[in-house]
């Protein structure tokens, strides 16, 4: 493993089949594993797993989906394209997103960054035997983090033969979640990928600023969260990399708005603006004409009284994570 490869992470998406076939891999996969993205798409991701760890990882893939897990990570070995580089110890994050598994793969090395990644994850599993150093205690935890329950592995006793290879039919869709990949190198955080149409319409979000779909009242705090996650996602060289999970709740504007425009002028306590006219007599600010005044899916109206498009405000729980190629945001309806 050369030094440049040991500081990167790539975003990956796989399907629910027992082979966990690649649906998406970002460009940094070439820096870490030597493959170009097009060489992996539609191929089984489990083909890259070390043979000694294959049964446990396949079972872990199954249990992750069946138990509808989010923000969990595992340490395992993955094969490099160059046979001379052999198998690389990797940290793989996973979140079930309705009908796919989304996450990232990064080079695993002990240190503060690994400790931070583990401390923000919902669950940590160490599969590679020599990587037990990654099993550390959480603050105030009386015992190490338990591993994921893996059905039939390892055998319950030394004399018991291993279970036959796990076979399973494609599992049904799980929690309604949407995964977004954002451009981490611009202030507007343009949306590069949207996993499904469950919460936001794919045709409307692609290429637009992520903040167009954050309600104006929450934009400042969401921007702050993203800056924090970007700060976590920096390696020892100061280069973009992975940095654990952040969690938040905010309001989503499903129809989108123009977040590049300033908010409406504030109105004085007497209800008049700086020109002396009442706010209710002025047309709405163009960026909020049929968005900012809409709550809970109410119809809105333009200044001439004609009905505008129906806009819905959704409260969502979000998982944020940073990677070499972008930012990952997982959204689901808040409970």
UniProtKB/TrEMBL annotation:
Location of the region described as Disordered in the Swiss-Prot/TrEMBL record: 147-166, 256-309
A Pfam family hit: PAS_3
Database matches in Gene3D superfamilies: PAS domain
Biased composition (Basic and acidic residues): 270-284
Domain PAS residue range list: 13-68
UniProt cross-references to InterPro entries, sorted A to Z: PAS, PAS-like_dom_sf, PAS_fold_3
CDD domains per the UniProt record, alphabetical: PAS
Superkingdom as given in the UniProt entry: Eukaryota
SMART domains with a match to the protein in the record: PAS (SM00091)
Descriptive protein name: PAS domain-containing protein
Species in which this protein is naturally found: Cristinia sonorae
């Amino acid at each position: 493993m050369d030094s440049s490869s040991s500081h990167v992470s790539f975003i990956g998406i796989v399907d629910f089949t027992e082979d966990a076939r690649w649906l998406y891999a970002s460009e940094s996969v070439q820096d870490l594993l030597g493959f170009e993205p097009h060489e992996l798409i539609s191929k089984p991701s489990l083909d890259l797993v070390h043979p000694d760890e294959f049964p446990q990882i396949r079972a872990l893939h199954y249990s992750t989906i069946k138990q509808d897990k989010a923000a969990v990570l595992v340490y395992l070995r993955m094969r490099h394209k160059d046979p001379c580089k052999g198998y690389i110890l990797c940290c793989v994050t996973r979140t079930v997103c309705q009908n796919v598994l989304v996450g990232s793969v990064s080079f695993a090395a002990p240190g503060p960054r690994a400790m931070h990644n583990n401390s923000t994850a919902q669950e940590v599993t160490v599969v590679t035997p020599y990587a037990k150093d990654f099993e550390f205690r959480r603050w105030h935890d009386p015992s190490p983090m338990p591993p994921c329950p893996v059905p039939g592995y390892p055998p319950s006793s030394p004399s018991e033969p291993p279970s036959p290879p796990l076979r399973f039919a494609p599992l049904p869709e799980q929690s309604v979640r949407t995964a977004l990949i954002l451009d981490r190198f611009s202030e507007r955080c343009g949306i590069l990928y949207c996993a499904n149409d469950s919460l936001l319409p794919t045709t409307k979000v692609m290429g637009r600023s992520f903040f167009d779909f954050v309600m104006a009242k929450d934009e400042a705090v969401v921007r702050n969260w993203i800056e924090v996650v970007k700060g976590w996602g920096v390696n020892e060289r100061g280069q973009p990399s992975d940095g654990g999970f952040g969690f938040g709740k905010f309001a989503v504007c499903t129809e989108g708005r123009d977040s590049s425009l300033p908010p409406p002028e504030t109105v004085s306590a007497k209800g008049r603006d700086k020109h002396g006219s009442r706010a209710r007599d002025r047309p709405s600010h163009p960026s909020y004409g049929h968005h900012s005044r809409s709550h809970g899916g109410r119809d809105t109206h333009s200044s001439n009284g004609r009905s505008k498009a129906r806009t819905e405000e959704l409260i969502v729980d979000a998982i944020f994570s940073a990677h070499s190629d972008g930012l990952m945001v997982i959204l689901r309806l808040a409970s």
